[in-house]
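Re: the multi-chain job from yesterday

Posting the exact lines I submitted so nobody has to dig through the queue logs.
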Amino acid sequence: MTDQTPVAGRTADLMMALGREARAAARIVALADTETKSRALRAAARVMTARTPEILAANARDLDAARAAGRPAAFLDRLALDAKRVGAIATSLDEIADLPDPVGAVMAEWTRPNGLVIARTRVPLGVVGIIFESRPNVTADAGGLCLKSGNAAILRAGSESIHSAGAIHACLVAGLAEAGLPAAAITLVPTIDREAVGLMLQGLGGAIDVIVPRGGKSLVARVQDEARVPVFAHLEGICHAYVDRDADADKAVAIVLNGKLRRTGVCGATECLLVDRAAPAGVLVRLVTALLDAGCEVRGDAETAAVDRRVRPAAADDYGREFLDTIIAVKVVDGVGAAITHIARYGSQHTDAIITENVATAERFTREVDSAIVLVNASTQFADGGEFGFGAEIGIATGKMHARGPVGVEQLTSFKYVVRGTGQVRPG
Amino acid sequence: MTDQTPVAGRTADLMMALGREARAAARIVALADTETKSRALRAAARVMTARTPEILAANARDLDAARAAGRPAAFLDRLALDAKRVGAIATSLDEIADLPDPVGAVMAEWTRPNGLVIARTRVPLGVVGIIFESRPNVTADAGGLCLKSGNAAILRAGSESIHSAGAIHACLVAGLAEAGLPAAAITLVPTIDREAVGLMLQGLGGAIDVIVPRGGKSLVARVQDEARVPVFAHLEGICHAYVDRDADADKAVAIVLNGKLRRTGVCGATECLLVDRAAPAGVLVRLVTALLDAGCEVRGDAETAAVDRRVRPAAADDYGREFLDTIIAVKVVDGVGAAITHIARYGSQHTDAIITENVATAERFTREVDSAIVLVNASTQFADGGEFGFGAEIGIATGKMHARGPVGVEQLTSFKYVVRGTGQVRPG
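And the result, structure tokens for all chains:
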């Protein structure tokens, strides 16, 4: 009889069951103490190291399929594991174990005139759904961060990395078992049926509290569009660096080059350089020349093009574009006000920087630029949970609800108010 | 030509235009300084006092219509204003002006080893949509709290209170004008077309960041069900008081009576009393007798019924029911573990209390009960932003995203990271 059930129905039944099991497990990991969670994380890391050959064999299956499907080199690189990468994934789990446990931390405490002591205390969110594509390390990183923060995780790997993710997930489950925690605390969706994603975005009947997509723009766009539960994500990182009239030219050149070129494929890469028309003579030339000499394509407005014949004219849609490549858009603007206006129009509320020695100008920029991260005299490539001291991040969010900027273990928590009295009743 | 446009289309066009104007105004109030916002709030309060006759006349129109429609007395009472109530609304606006400005407050600041100084700084959320029913004071309270927190507000009053809301809203607009702030910072939806609510729940094309419903369970349920934007709300306040074996009997009686009977119509009213089977002889009797003697109907299990012949047998659905009346469900349970299990099953994650002198038992209860507010030895009626010291609240939220518990001005903010450097670039 079961075999005659339509596949779609089977996937829905499977996913709803996974949701219920994750919800039940969430209650257990929410109450697990720090030591138990750490034991699970460290055991998982140990098992992962020991099982490196199995993980690499699973990864080879995924790689073979990806090559057969004609996937590009960048895709294969994101997917590929070697012993060193597996070691790094295991090390990350140990590092997550070393982080302070956010659960139970008192965020604020105050005493009311009637003697009530009110404490705002961190609690886990519940069940986190993670939908990702090809990077196998997301399995361990996201699963580990969710466990550390007392949440259950439902991980949905892309079909291209399903074997790699499965092998890594097995190590996490072994770690959970060693600590006496339920396997459903970190669930890997066992089907590659695409319907599973849609079901997760609907929340699995209330079982999922938040969705974190990890992948390209089309995945994030779909998740943001369809999800009926909160989403922690950024669609694009269209990061700007604005070089003000009061900028230190040496700092400006160093920050812009690093912001654009340190890694061009990350969401914190600078995609657009804005230069104050009143900047000292030569600053624009130095910036543009340094970028070009470093091998970066420069797409500029007329004033920028006048600097160097290698500059290509910027098309209208080069502003507000996430190149994720060795390409930068450049524009000359009339001061900090115009820079703020440009960023409001073309930015993605992710990360934007000003280079200036003028404190008042810097204050205006940080106040008026409506982005998750606003930097003064530093590279946009610092947009990273590790660089913020969060230890690790599950992603970067540009929304304003709950989590904004790097999403680390603290951002994966909510809070409750614990109110301690001595018999108080409310008058009136 | 315009007159031939279908009404639905007109409402949609109107609402989208309101959304765009509110979004533009949000940027202005987000950057307005404390003094400007205070001037608007105090001016609105002053105008409101001066216009008391006009407000009462508008209210009389609403009351006449409500009486003609045969609305019950409780409804009329919620709707009715008099000079004293108008004065209280104006005073609330002055009190909101007196609150500390949350915008720009540094929530946390730390320095990284590379010298970067990272500050997590409060910023407004953007545009808050408030959908409410008959209480005219919501217009001023919600509008005032949104302005104080640097947000624009789009207020949708119930058709029954539209004239009262309009008269109060006019005072807010006068206050905004006096401070040089745009009228669209606090918008009252000028149509009673019910389609407007559905459009707001869709977010007005991205113009609304969060919805706050203020009203009965059916309104909140509809909002939670249909909204495509985040919602700060609670559906029900099914609050429990658990009297433990180690409770002080005098405190227990005082707390339970206050929790149930101080006001029965508020969301923090105790709806269910759980009594430890191992509580000292006489505690259950005292509790039940005191409730009955105070005029409260007691619906109990068999053990409770044995205490007093006035106790009525509880039906299965009396547990988990929000009576909002002088009725309480009572059950005898086997200790704190059973109380926690009962609350997990029947509660609404709003507010629950334990009465015990045992610190370890209290700690277990506060840790394991998954509610926004968990009290020890205090009345559930303290579930209130004012009682928490927040000054005022726009509502109470039971979700775990962003705001939880009383939603005051701080909970109406998000944050950004301001990172100050001296030329740092990211290595590697």
